[in-house]
Write a structure and sequence with these properties.
By secondary structure, the chain is α+β, with helices and mostly antiparallel strands. It has 8 helices and 7 strands; from the N terminus they run ααβααβαββββαβαα.
């Protein structure tokens, strides 16, 4: 009996697969070869934005850490002394077997008077002054100095003071709103008109800060040049022009 040669798998598949199906498979395989591959295109990266040399709020005056801590501690200390004398020491004289109203009044006043005096002279103490810079004045020192020497009418500064409890509070105003004065035993050398601002405040809000005391002879920030330029512009303002008549 003659031996039948073994058929390969491909030949066997060609015999078992119908001709139409084989033709469609060939066409699909040809198109799969011609199908374009996914090409990943890298988008060009944008150059990083140029970082400004100076911030929007430029620190131009600093009273000093030692002065700021001393004034804040002095305020809190006088509050505790006033509380101690008025709440604990004073009532003992009234409730004594031989009450002495005069002595009790003196004790209470010895606690109130120092607190009122410290609050009066330290209220206008300025901790920091920031100058708000426009975008074009933040890119170079030359442009910043030129801007500080020729401030426009709408140039603004932020003045940081302390409230009764020593907490920092910031007041924003225009440079043209300030004018030089000498008030509160020389502790105030700048002031502004706050009547319009206070008229728009709620009844429960504290009044806006009107007086400011800048007492450092020379600010260490950038050699004091920027603050000197601002102070020179403020010195040209007059109280008669800034204070509005009611």
């Amino acid at each position: 009996m003659p031996m039948i040669p073994a058929l390969s798998r491909r030949a066997l598949h060609s015999f078992t697969t119908p001709p139409m199906l084989r033709r469609s498979v060939l066409i699909i395989s040809k198109f799969s070869v011609l199908r374009p591959r996914n090409i990943t295109t890298s988008t060009p990266r944008k150059p990083p934005a140029r970082k400004s040399l100076f911030p929007e709020r430029l620190l131009v005056y600093h009273a000093g850490t030692g002065r700021t801590v001393f004034v804040g501690s002095l305020k809190i200390t006088t509050i505790f002394i006033c509380t101690f004398f008025c709440v604990f020491v004073g009532p003992t004289f009234f409730n004594a077997e031989d009450p002495a109203p005069m002595a009790a009044s003196i004790v209470v006043l010895s606690g109130i008077v120092p607190m009122v005096f410290v609050m009066y002279i330290s209220r206008p103490f300025v901790n920091f002054i920031h100058l708000r810079l426009p975008p074009f004045a933040r890119n170079s020192r030359e442009m910043m100095m030129r801007y500080s020497k020729n401030l426009p009418k709408d140039a603004e500064i932020d003045i940081t003071t302390m409230n009764l409890l020593g907490k920092a509070q910031v007041a924003r105003m225009k440079v043209t709103d300030l004018y030089p004065v000498r008030e509160r035993f020389g502790m105030v050398n700048y002031a502004r008109d706050t009547r319009e601002i206070n008229s728009k405040r709620k009844w429960w809000m504290p009044p806006a800060v009107r007086q400011f005391g800048v007492h450092s002879g020379r600010s260490r920030i950038m050699g004091g040049e920027v603050w000197d330029n601002i102070a020179a512009i403020i010195s040209k303002n007059s109280k008669s022009k800034n204070v509005k008549k009611p």
